[in-house]
Amino acid sequence: MRPRYLILLSIFCVIAALTGPASAGPADITVTSSTLDPQVLMKGDTGTLTIVIQNTGAETVAIKSARLYGSGVVPLSEPYPSVGELGAGNTKTFTFTVRADGGEGTFYPQFVLDFRNDGSLRHPVPVQVEDTPLSASVINKPDAFAEGRTADITVRVGNPRPNAASGVQVIPIGTGFTATPTGGFVGALAPDAAGTVTFNLTPTAETDVTFQVVWRNGINTHTADLVLPVTFGEDKRQADPVITNVEVTPEAGRYRVVGDISNAGLESARSVVIAPGAPAAPTDPFRIYVVGTLDPDDISSFEVTFKAERNVTEVPIVVEYRDGDGNRYTATTMVGLGGATLPAEGSGGDLPVVAIIVVVLVALGIAGAIYYSWRRT
Amino acid sequence: MNTGFLRVLLDPGRFFEARMQGEPSLKVPALIALVIGIIGAVSAALSANVTIAAFPADMQAFGSIGVAIAVVGGIIGGFFTWVAFGIVFYIVSMLFVGDGDLKRTLEFTGYGLLPQVFGGIIGAVFSYQLISNLTIPTASRPEDIAVVVEALTNAMLADPLTQIIGIISILFLIWSANIWIFGMKYARNLSTRNAALTVGIPVGLYILINLVTLIGLM
Questions:
Q1: What is the domain extent for residue B163?
Q2: Residue B151 is nearest to which of A341, A355, A362, comparing CB atoms?
Q3: CB–CB of B160/A347 below 8 Å?
Q4: Under the phi-then-psi rule, with left for phi > 0, alpha for psi from -120 to 50, and beta for the rest, what region is B189?
C-alpha cells in the first residue's frame, strides 16, 4: 500500500472517531399513542393533547425539536425547541394544550419532530370536536300549578355526547318561586347515561322557571337551560267540595242553613270549614262549621246561622279547605233565601218587653173588672 | 153610674137586670159584632197584603182579590162569632133547664162581646208589629208562592208576639165570659152556678184548645 492511501485512511478514521457513533434516522421513530383530555372537545374548549413516541430502532436518535400546528384545533402551549436523544427502545411523551377554534368535526393537527441530522417526522393527530350539549327534560310535573301550592318537579339530564360529562348539576333559576333543594347534583354522566333530580317547587306568581344544567367537559364548564312555564290552573285531581241538600230556615232574628257537603274531587280536602259570606253576618250558635277532613266521595252534614238584611235574596256559603301541603282553597256556593222569611232582630228570640207589659196590664185590668163586677152583685 | 151599654164591662149584673125590663134589641149587639168584624178584617187585610207582596209581579193583580176576600171574611167572622156563641150558650143552658128566648140570649151574648173590641184592637196592633218585622222575599216563580206562604206562616208562628197575641185574646175572652155569665143568668133565668157552667163549658173548651195550640208553638 502506498503511503498516500495510508494517510487518507488515517484521516478518515480520525474523522470517524471525532464524529462519534453512527445515528439512526426518522424511520425508527414511531408515534405510539395520542390522547386528548377531554376525549371530545366542544367549540371553544381547551384540552390537553398527549403524544407518545418510541424509538423502535437499534440506535439512538437525536431529535432536535417537537411542535404541533394546525387549523381548527390550535396549540396554545409552546413547542419543544430542544428534545435531545432518544435511546433505542425508549419512549418520550409530549403534551400540548390545544383549543378548538373551528367548528364541529374531526381535525388533524400536525405533530412534527425535527431530527438533528436532517429529516423530520410528521404525524397527523385526530381531534374530535362536537358541540352537542347535555339534554334536560321535565319528566314529572303537576297537571296545573296553583299559587302557594308545592309541586314536585323531576328533571332528567341525559348525556348524548360521545364522551363523559363530569360535575353535572341542575340549578333552578328565576323569580316568583321557591325551590327545595336549591340545586341538584348528578355527578358524572357516562355517554348515553342519564340522571334525575327532583325539586319541590312553590310558585308565588306565574313565571318561567329555568332549570340550568351545568357540567364540565374536561376543564371547560358548560350550561344548558330548560325553561318550564309556570301558569296557574285547576288541578284535575284536587278536592272539589260540593254543597247539596240545602235547607234555609228563618228563625227569630236569623237564618239557619243546613245541608250536606261532599267531596267530588280525587284528593282529600283537609281542615274543611264552612261559613256564610258577606252580605250575611255569621251569628251564634253556628258562626262557622268545622267539618275537618273530607275524603274523596265522603259526605258530611253542616249547619250555619247568620243574619242578613231584608233585601238580601241570596247569600254565599263559603267552604275553606286545605290540601296536603297546607295550601288554602275556597269554594263558594250561593244559597237563595227565596221562600224564607225572617223576623227582624229584636222581635225574635228576645221577648218583646213592651208587649209583655201590655199583657200584664191587660190581665190586671180584666181581673179588676171581673172582681168589680162580682162585688157589685 | 150610667154610661150606657159600656156599663156592661164593669157592672154586667145591674146592666142585664135593667135590660130585662125592655124588649130584646139586637141593634147594639150587631154594632158590636160589626166593629169586631171590621177590626178582624183589618188584621186579615194586613196579613193578606204581606203575603201578596211576596207574589211575582204578574200575579199581584190576584192579590187584590185575596185582600177583598180577607176583608169580607173578617166582617162575616165577627157576626159568626156572635151568633155561634149565642147558639152554643142557648143549647148548653137547655141542659140546666134554661128559660128564655134565643133573641134575648143573642142580645146578651152580643153585649158580652164588647171586650173583644178592645182585645181586637190590641191584637191588631201587635199583629201589625209582627208583620212589619218580617222580611218578605219575593217569589220569582209561581211555584215558589206556596213555599213563601208556608215560610211566612212558620216565621209568624215562631215569633213570641204570636203567643202574646194569643194570650191577650184569651184574657179578653175571659172578660167576655164573665159578662156572659151574668147575661145567661138573666137571659135564660139560670142560677149563678148554672150560668157559670153554661158559659164556662164551651168557653173553657175554646180556651183549652187555644192554650194547647199556644203551648205547641212555644
A1: 9-217
A2: A341
A3: yes
A4: left
Please judge whether A339 and B10 are an interchain contact, meaning their C-beta atoms are less than 8 angstroms apart. Answer: no
Q: How far apart are CA B46 and CA B59, in angstroms?
A: 18
The complex's ipTM works out to 0.88
Is the pLDDT at A35 greater than 90? The verdict is yes
Q: Do A304 and A282 form a contact (C-beta atoms < 8 A)?
A: yes
Residue B185 forms part of a structural domain: yes
Residues of chain A with C-beta less than 8 angstroms from the C-beta of B167: 359
Number of independent structural domains in chain B: 1
Peptide bond into A79 cis (omega under 30): no
Cis? peptide before A279, omega within 30° of 0: yes
Global pTM exceeds 0.95: no
Contact (CB, 8 A) for B175 and B115: yes
A324 vs B106: CA distance, rounded Å: 81
Identify whether B2 is part of a domain: no
Pairing state between β A73-75 and A207-217: unpaired
Q: Which helix (H) or strand (E) holds B149?
A: helix B145-158
CA distance B12 to A315: 58
Which position has the higher pLDDT, B16 or B158? Answer: B16
**In the sheet where A105-107 sits, what is the strand order?**
A40-41, A127-129, A105-107
A339: contact with B, CB 8 A cutoff: yes
Across A68-82, A128-142, B3-17, least confident range: B3-17
Which chain A residue has its CA at the smallest distance from B119's CA?
A362
Question: For residues B188 and B107, what is the distance between their CA atoms, to the nearest angstrom?
Answer: 12
A96-to-A57, A84, A108, A110, A254 alpha-carbon distances in Å: 26, 18, 14, 12, 91
The per-residue pLDDT for range A173-216, each reduced to its tens digit, is 999 999 999 999 999 999 999 999 999 999 999 999 999 999 99
